[in-house]
Each structure stands twice: as structure tokens, then as C-alpha cells.
Write a structure and sequence with these properties.
Blueprint: E1 4-5, H1 7-15, H2 21-34, E2 39-40, H3 42-62, H4 72-79, H5 83-98, H6 103-116, E3 126-127, H7 129-136, H8 140-156, E4 161-162, H9 164-174
Parallel strand pairs: 1-2, 3-4
Helix pairs in contact: 1-3, 7-9, 8-9
Length: 184
């Protein structure tokens, strides 16, 4: 399958920091293949960026951080092993220091992930707050089975963030029509 990048998506990658571009160019085709896509769009870049930010926030929370602060880099450097991870931390910190005024939206976005991030185990899909609320609408005796089935469907399809929309997609694929609860 040939993979196509839209012009808008390529421009976004060109505008990314130098040290991030190779990772984007490697990750996007992998994620597109996992999802059966043949086109990488700006919207897809946003989706994968948000998933990556959620994953980073979860890892940071598991390291004991409750919020993102510039001082967190020093603490993270002490906890993270490996020269490559140290180098990436240095590059991120240097980038953020060089553009102080534009960091607020990035930090605000991470803060929102920290605030809404449920405790999850490594390797499992992350449930958004609205997805958890959607699951709570199911009868209590079904919730455990439904959660497991949705997480398995997410893993099979390379999805790392479970949203209400993903729940609907999963329901369409794994539950026979006559047994589906009403939407909403």
C-alpha cells in the first residue's frame, strides 16, 4: 500500500523542531499502517500528537509528577536512564527555553492531560474522561466485559486513546446489531 502525505501534513512536519522530524517521519507511517490508512493528513498528525502527549503525561505522572513545570526536566533527568533519553530531554528543554512566550499553550495542553489522566497501567490504551463517563452509562454488570472488549479492540487496531467516538466504532464492530444499547 502506497502512503500519501497531504501537503498540509508535510508543511507541519517541516515546521516541527529539527530533532522531532525524524521521529514523526518514522512514527506516522507506522500508525497509519496500524489503522489501515493510506493517507497522512494534518488531522491524523494532530490525533497522533495528542495520543503521544497523553502517553508522555501518563509516563510523567507515573514518575511522580503532578504537573508540568520547567523544573521537572532536572527531576526527569535524574530518573531517566540512557544517553538518548537524556539527549532528548536536553533538546526539549533547550527548545522550550528558546521560545518562552509560545510555551504557555503547550504547558496548558499538558496540564489538561495531567488533570484528566486516569491511572492506567503501561501498555494499555488511555481512556479519556468522556469515554469513562460513556462506559459508566452501561449497566454495571456489563461494564467490566465491555471495557475489556473495547481495550482489546483498541490494541488490535493500534489505538492508544479511547474516546466516546472510538467506543461507538468498537460497538459497531464487536457487538451484534440487535444487542447494541442506544447511543448517548
Amino acid at each position: 500500500m502506497d502512503l500519501i502525505w497531504t501537503e498540509e501534513a508535510l508543511k507541519r512536519v517541516e515546521n516541527a523542531p529539527d530533532f522531532v522530524r525524524p521521529g514523526i517521519m518514522k512514527l506516522m507511517p507506522k500508525r497509519a499502517k496500524e489503522r489501515g490508512l493510506n493517507k497522512i493528513t494534518s488531522e491524523f498528525l494532530t490525533e497522533i500528537r495528542d495520543e503521544s502527549m497523553l502517553l508522555a503525561a501518563r509516563r510523567m505522572k507515573n514518575m511522580g509528577f503532578e504537573e508540568l513545570q520547567m523544573g521537572a526536566f532536572d527531576q526527569a533527568r535524574e530518573k531517566m536512564k540512557g544517553a538518548k533519553k537524556q539527549e532528548v530531554l536536553d533538546l526539549i528543554q533547550s527548545l522550550l527555553k528558546s521560545r518562552k512566550k509560545s510555551n504557555e499553550p503547550i504547558i496548558d495542553k499538558f496540564q489538561s492531560y495531567f488533570k484528566d489522566l486516569p491511572k492506567q497501567t503501561e501498555g494499555k490504551a488511555i481512556w479519556t474522561k468522556s469515554a469513562e463517563e460513556r462506559l459508566q452509562k452501561a449497566p454495571p454488570f456489563v461494564q467490566g466485559m465491555a471495557k475489556k472488549a473495547i481495550e482489546e479492540f483498541a490494541e488490535e487496531n493500534g489505538v492508544r486513546k479511547i474516546t466516546p467516538e472510538f467506543i461507538e466504532e468498537a460497538m459497531e464492530k464487536i457487538v451484534p446489531k440487535g444487542f447494541r444499547p442506544p447511543k448517548g
